[in-house]
Design a protein that fits this description.
heterodimer, A: about 180 residues, mainly alpha, flat, B: about 200 residues, 2 domains, 8 helices, about 0% strand, disordered N terminus
Amino acid sequence: MNSPSAPIALTAHLIVLSSISFGGFPTVLPDVRNFVVATHGWVTDQEFANFFAIAQSIPGPNMILMMSFVGWKVWGFPGAVASAFATFGPPCAMYFGAYRVWDRFRNAPWQRIVRLGLVPVTMGLVIASGTVMARAADAGWRAAAVTIAAAAITLTTRLNPLWLLLAGGALGGLGLL
Amino acid sequence: MPRSTTSAAAVERKRSAPVPLGTLFIAFLKVSLYGVGGGGGLVWSRRIAVDQRRWITEQDFADIVSLCQFLPGPNIVGIAVCVGAKLRGAVGAIAAVAGFLVIPWTIGFALGLLFLEHAHHPVLQNIVGGVSSAAAGLLIATGIRMLLPHRGRPAALLLAALAFGLMGFGSLPLLVVLVGLVPLSISAAGFQSARAR
């Protein structure tokens, strides 16, 4: 929007951030906000908040979409595409390389031990992010009951989870939560 | 192909037949479209790759999720890369990522621009809130299910509980939690397997 170098600066910054976003892209969101809102003024605070809320409620690659909205604001459609690639490109290359190494040492004794150690911690973290999301989403006891019921039904039945999401959306839309 | 091959050999060949790239593309397209809210992709990629298609074992899937937690970037894209790479190598990874991103990104981007025009409609926000509540429950259940194979190991359960508490209620940065707990957890596993030998 401002200088012609703005899209290049944004793309380069996103490439760096996506390469260090350990724990997922949400961990670097504060940095993105500083860069595009405070430092360069490409996006207002209100717009940034709206991008986040919308990206969260649309199915699909949320954080990649959010960065695309930022890129779109700076440089239209080409900016959106460039931001998307900057967000998922470098991590994809690292995932691929790391998986090849992991797979090559598939039968090494150390790998069994690393696995036995890693998986419980990771799953504790997954359950934690579920509860963090629940605390953000559940305004009252009725919404919390929906979360608990969805978890219990998923664990005890083979019901397609889409029905649970639909039920949650319907209850919310009717103003019952 | 002669028709005289034994049925066992046919079954074996069918089992080792590579997963078509189009099937991978469609599977991760579904994962992407069904996964509303943070963590949804994890729920659906496990359901499709482990439960429905039986492409990979529960253990392999848990490994992949753990590996992806340790690397930067959107972890769910990492799951697509690893499952694709496991089934078909580099082209498989590209097919899975393309399935995950291309169509959902296009739809999401168009929808998003439309939403931005009508951002604050109350009914819209209520629906999104209800879906998020249910989605949080699905994520919790997926974590519990992948923890079940470790239920016989008290040290594993203790470390899972610590990770849960520190991250869910301590609000510590993820990297701090990982660096603090993983060496402990791997030592416990090493100690246990040394004693079992």
